[in-house]
Specification:
The protein is an all-alpha fold. The protein has 4 helices and no strands. Helix 2 runs antiparallel to helix 3 and helix 2 crosses helix 4.
C-alpha cells in the first residue's frame, strides 16, 4: 500500500486524524526515516501543525516504556 493510496482513502477530517494517530501509535519515530514518514503523512493529510503536536504529546504521554508495567491505582 503506497502513501498516495492510503491518504486518498481518508475522506473526512476524522478519518485523517485517525489515520495519523494510528500511524503514530505504531511508529516510535526514533530515526529520521520514521520522523520523515510521519511528517510527510501529516502534510499529505493536510493536518494543522498544532493538531499534529497535540497528537504527538498525547501519544508520548500515553506510551509505557518497554518492559514496564503500568502502575495500578490499587
Amino acid at each position: 500500500l503506497d502513501l498516495h493510496t492510503l491518504v486518498a482513502g481518508a475522506k473526512t477530517d476524522a478519518q485523517k486524524l485517525e489515520l495519523y494517530t494510528a500511524s503514530r501509535l505504531t511508529i516510535d519515530p526514533d530515526t529520521r526515516a520514521e520522523r520523515g514518514y510521519l511528517d510527510l503523512l501529516a502534510g499529505r493529510l493536510g493536518l494543522p501543525d498544532a493538531l499534529v503536536d497535540h497528537v504527538e504529546a498525547t501519544v508520548s504521554a500515553a506510551k509505557v516504556p518497554a518492559g514496564s508495567a503500568p502502575s495500578s491505582p490499587w
